[in-house]
Design a protein that fits this description.
Layout lengths: L10 H13 L4 H22 L1
Length: about 50
Amino acid sequence: MRKGQYAAGQWPRAKRNAKRFMALPIDQHTWESELRDLDRALEKVFSARG
């Protein structure tokens, strides 16, 4: 994450959020499977809506 990606006002908040996020005890594998589950759930929702 580089400062250039954020407007000046957003940067401190983004940095704070990133810190909190990195503090979560989630390893890469768990994270990927969580994302896959979320993906599947979204697909179900959208296909159900037609």
